[in-house]
Amino acid sequence: MFEPSPEEVFEPAPEEIGARIDAERRRGRGAVTNASGRYETEVRVAVDDGWDSLDDLPPLKTEVQVEKPKRIITRNQSPDISFDRSINPYRGCEHGCVYCFARPTHAYMGLSPGLDFETKLFVKPNAAAMLERELGEPGYQCRTIAIGTNTDPYQPIEKTHRIMREVLEVLERTNHPVAIVTKSHLVTRDKDILGRMGAKGLAKVALSVTTLDGRLARAMEPRAASPRRRLDAIRELSEAGVPTAVMVAPIIPALTDHEIERILDAAQAAGAREAGYVLLRLPLEVSELFRQWLLVNRPDSYRHVMSLIRAMRDGKDYDSTWGKRMRGAGPYAWQIARRFELQVKKLGLQKGGRTRLRADLFEPPVGRGVQLSLF
């Protein structure tokens, strides 16, 4: 309905695919390239020497390293999000969602936001102990901690490391509110803790559902739970007494936006009480990675998708302006917002962020390295 003028249409160029990694090596991964991070002084590209040397390279494997941050609670002052603190038990994410806005953070580690982001992961084994110490610091003021804001806390390596489980045990012990966003069915493993916290008004969980098309989800989010499993997670958590929400995120124009109503219908039927959405964001390296993915997986949709994205981002791939980055601007963005609002109202769902968690039950931890009070 809201097509840009011909001069606004972006014409794809073959070179945009860049140094593409062989499909067999990257099987089960989201990105198709692994370009060096933006802070690197050298660019490394695998080149066939004429002796079919690239054919001998093994498939990409997930590597896990230990990270020891000085603090575990991260603060932010962003005016367009509902929380001011968060925890990320991991850095990088094996789910491999090609559109993930957190990919550029891997450049801080001297790694690629491409395939490195989903194959070279960092684990923070002391997260729970650090959290307990920080919650016990003098002057700490309790507010909801968000988890799952940068990488998924229930990605596959959580099965082994169980850091999220340990973090939840600290939060339950101190009656501290927590809001979780995930794409993984693994969250249901912790429904015992989340159910008890939910009964006190201390926990809520949002499942991110991008599409109900299993084939498309497998291509865009190769190691995340299938859409059906995410809906199953909503159902299990709801039955366990956990307030649940669905995040229709990200909404990708001309690719997934036609599913807004269906996703909301399915989530509400599964037990979701709340709903939110985020328009596709393409900051920094994510723009190139997503365009490469489109050229490889949806070449016939490339021009249409990118033209609509730019129509909602003031002619650019991304606009980081507060208030616009999550929702976009212009007629097409307006249409998406109205469709979402009408369906949410029809289904009796609350808009995202409306469910407030309690902070008045918080009990600062004592012992275990936490400074004791003199009174």
TrEMBL record:
Per the record, the domain of life is: Bacteria
Q: Per its UniProt record, what SUPFAM superfamilies does this chain match?
A: Radical SAM enzymes (SSF102114)
Which PROSITE patterns does this UniProt record tie to the protein? Answer: RADICAL_SAM (PS51918)
Keyword vocabulary terms for this entry: Iron, Iron-sulfur, Metal-binding
Q: Which Gene3D superfamilies match?
A: 3.80.30.30
Q: Where is the composition biased (Acidic residues)?
A: 1-14
Q: Which GO terms describe its molecular function?
A: catalytic activity; iron-sulfur cluster binding; metal ion binding
- Identify the stretch(es) annotated as Disordered: 1-33
Which SMART domains does this entry report, sorted A to Z?
Elp3 (SM00729)
| InterPro entries membership | Elp3/MiaA/NifB-like_rSAM (IPR006638), MJ0683-like (IPR040086), rSAM (IPR007197), rSAM_sf (IPR058240)
Radical SAM core domain: residues covered: 79-317
* Record NCBIfam families: rSAM_PA0069 (NF033668)
Q: Which PANTHER family match?
A: SLR0285 PROTEIN
Q: What is this protein called?
A: Radical SAM protein
